[in-house]
C-alpha cells in the first residue's frame, strides 16, 4: 500500500487588535486531540502583553479546507482549536502511518512541523488495532521483508487504573528466540518505549523502554531504561499456534512513573517488532521510531488514552 501523508498548513492572520504586537510572539503546534482519537488539536499561544485576534486557515490537501475566524487571545493566553477527522477512519492499516503536519503563523515567524499519530485506547476496552504489515514500516539490518506472512502483527491496547494492557498477535514464518533478559532484542519479540508525559525530548531520559519476549526461560518483561532488570509487577503470557505468536502483557502504571491516569491523555509510544529467522537480527517493523537507530522520545508515535 502506497504511503499517503495528509499535509496540513495553518496560517494565522492577526486582526486589528494586534497592532503593536509581533507575530513572533505567537507559538503554534499540532497534536492528536485527546478527546477524539482521529481529530487534530491546534494550539496557539500569545506570548505578548497585548490582545491578539487571529484567523486560522487549515488546508488539508486532497481533503478540505477549514477556516476559523476571530480567535481572540488575551495577553499571554493559550487557546486550542479542534479539526475533526484529520485522519479519516478508513482501514486500520492507515493508523501506523503518521499525518505529516505543518503549522505556520503570519510570515513564518511561528511554525511547527512534525508527524501526528492517531492510535488510541479506552478504559477497559481495546482501541482500534494497530497493523504492522507494510514495507513502509520495515527497517532492514541483515535481511529483507517479503510480506505479512514473513512478519506482521496486530496490536491493541486498553487500560485501567492499575495498568496498561497490550496485546500483539504476531505472524512470523520462523520463530527464533534463543536469547533472554537484556539480549532478547536480538531474537523474535517486541521492544516498547513509553514517554508517559509526552515530553518529546531529543533523548530518552524521561522514557521507559522494555521488551516482551518468549525466552528459553519463559515469558519475560525486561526493562532496559531507566532501571535495568525484569520489570516488577508486570505480567506476560505468550501463546504459540503455528506461525502465530500472541503476547498479552500488563504493565503497571507505577512502573511507568504514572500515579493516576486521568483521560483524555496522550503519551509517547513506540513499538518495534524484531525478526530473527535463525541467524542474526534481520530487521524490524515499527510504530514510531526512537528505539533502534537512536534513543529519542521526539521520534515516538503516540497512544491517546480515551475515557
Q: Proportion of β residues?
A: over 45%
- Cα-atom radius of gyration: 21 Å
Shape, please? Answer: elongated
**Distance between the terminal alpha carbons, to the nearest Å?**
32 Å
Total strands: the figure is 22
Class computed from helices, strands and strand pairing: mainly beta
N-to-C SSE series? EEEEEEEEEEEEEEEEEEEEEE
Largest sheet: 14 strands, mixed
The level of helicity is under 10%
The poorly predicted ranges are: 1-23
Q: What is the overall pLDDT average?
A: 85
Number of helices: 0
Notes on the structure:
- The structure is a single chain.
- It contains no helices and 22 strands.
- The chain has strands at residues 8-14, 26-32, 40-46, 52-60, 64-73, 78-83, 99-104, 111-116, 120-123, 130-132, 138-140, 151-159, 163-172, 189-195, 208-215, 218-225, 229-230, 235-241, 244-252, 265-275, 283-287, 301-306.
- The two termini are 32 Å apart.
Could you name the key traits of this structure?
14-stranded mixed sheet, disordered N terminus
Summarize the structure.
This protein is mainly β and 307 residues long.
Topology, please?
Elements: E1 8-14, E2 26-32, E3 40-46, E4 52-60, E5 64-73, E6 78-83, E7 99-104, E8 111-116, E9 120-123, E10 130-132, E11 138-140, E12 151-159, E13 163-172, E14 189-195, E15 208-215, E16 218-225, E17 229-230, E18 235-241, E19 244-252, E20 265-275, E21 283-287, E22 301-306
Parallel strand pairs: 1-7, 9-12, 9-22
Antiparallel strand pairs: 1-4, 2-3, 3-6, 4-5, 7-8, 10-12, 11-21, 12-13, 13-19, 14-15, 14-20, 15-16, 16-17, 18-19, 20-21, 20-22
Amino acid at each position: 500500500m502506497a504511503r499517503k501523508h495528509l499535509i496540513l498548513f495553518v496560517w494565522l492572520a492577526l486582526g486589528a487588535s494586534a497592532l503593536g504586537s509581533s507575530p513572533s510572539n505567537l507559538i503554534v503546534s499540532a497534536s492528536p486531540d485527546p478527546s477524539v482519537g482521529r481529530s487534530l488539536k491546534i494550539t496557539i499561544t500569545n506570548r505578548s502583553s497585548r490582545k491578539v485576534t487571529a484567523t486560522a486557515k487549515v488546508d488539508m490537501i486532497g481533503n478540505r479546507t477549514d477556516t476559523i475566524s476571530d480567535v481572540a487571545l488575551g495577553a499571554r493566553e493559550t487557546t486550542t482549536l479542534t479539526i475533526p477527522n484529520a485522519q479519516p477512519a478508513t482501514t486500520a492499516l492507515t493508523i501506523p502511518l503518521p499525518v505529516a503536519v505543518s503549522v505556520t503563523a503570519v510570515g513564518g515567524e511561528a511554525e511547527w512541523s512534525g508527524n501526528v499519530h492517531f492510535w488510541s485506547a479506552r478504559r477497559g476496552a481495546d482501541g482500534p488495532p494497530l497493523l504492522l504489515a507494510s514495507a513502509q514500516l520495515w527497517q532492514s539490518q541483515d535481511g529483507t521483508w517479503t510480506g505479512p506472512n514473513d512478519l506482521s502483527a496486530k496490536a491493541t491496547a486498553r487500560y485501567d487504573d492499575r495498568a496498561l494492557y497490550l496485546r500483539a498477535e504476531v505472524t512470523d514464518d520462523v520463530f527464533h528466540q534463543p536469547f533472554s533478559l537484556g539480549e532478547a532484542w536480538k531474537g523474535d519479540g517486541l521492544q516498547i518505549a513509553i514517554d508517559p508525559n509526552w515530553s518529546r525530548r531529543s533523548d530518552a531520559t524521561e522514557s521507559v523502554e522494555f521488551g516482551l519476549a518468549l525466552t528459553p526461560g519463559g515469558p519475560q518483561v525486561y526493562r532496559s531504561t531507566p532501571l535495568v532488570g525484569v520489570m516488577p509487577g508486570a505480567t506476560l503470557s505468550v501463546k504459540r499456534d503455528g506461525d502465530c505468536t500472541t503476547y498479552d502483557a500488563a504493565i503497571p502504571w507505577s512502573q511507568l512513573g504514572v500515579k493516576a491516569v486521568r483521560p483524555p491523555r496522550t503519551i509517547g509510544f513506540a513499538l518495534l517488532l524484531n525478526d530473527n529467522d535463525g541467524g542474526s537480527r534481520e530487521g524490524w517493523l515499527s510504530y514510531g521510531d526512537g528505539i533502534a537507530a537512536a534513543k529519542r522520545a521526539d521520534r515516538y508515535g503516540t497512544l491517546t488514552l480515551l475515557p
